[in-house]
Model the fold of this input.
Amino acid sequence: MEQKKQTIHLVRQVLKARQWSEESAKGALHHANADLDRDVSARDSIVERVEQNTLALRDAHGSGGARLDLDQIQRLRAWQGHSEAALLSAQSTVDASNIRVDDAREQLGSLVSERRVLQTLQERLVDRVASDEARAQSRLVDETFAAGLSHKQDETHGTR
Done:
């Protein structure tokens, strides 16, 4: 029984360590989500800027008043290439952030699962120890009662 109590103590210590790890994993998930939100916002900002500039260019060109010369077309192509590269870079950053969020979520899920298993183990061990103690107490009461009966029977039969 003493060994079971030591095992319970060890399980509690491991459970505390898992709970700390779980809290750390929650923090990591929170930071990963914040990074993802920031990266998505940056990507969306680039997309919005490209859409606004494209609309402004269409409006200027479509009104008939503005004609584009060769220099403007070259600058527009260079800007468009730069914007596409920035958008690709932002999208790859978002993808990497999504991977980090998924990894953090998976790590947290694993730690939560381990903690639940340890809690179940601890509960079962505590129940076993309580059951063993109750059985030992019952056995002691039975032995005491039996000894008392034996003693009374010896007195009534005059063997004492």
Observations:
- The mean pLDDT is 87.
- The two ends are 38 Å apart (CA to CA).
- Residues 2-125 form a domain with the Helix Hairpins fold (CATH 1.10.287).
- The longest helix spans residues 70-156.
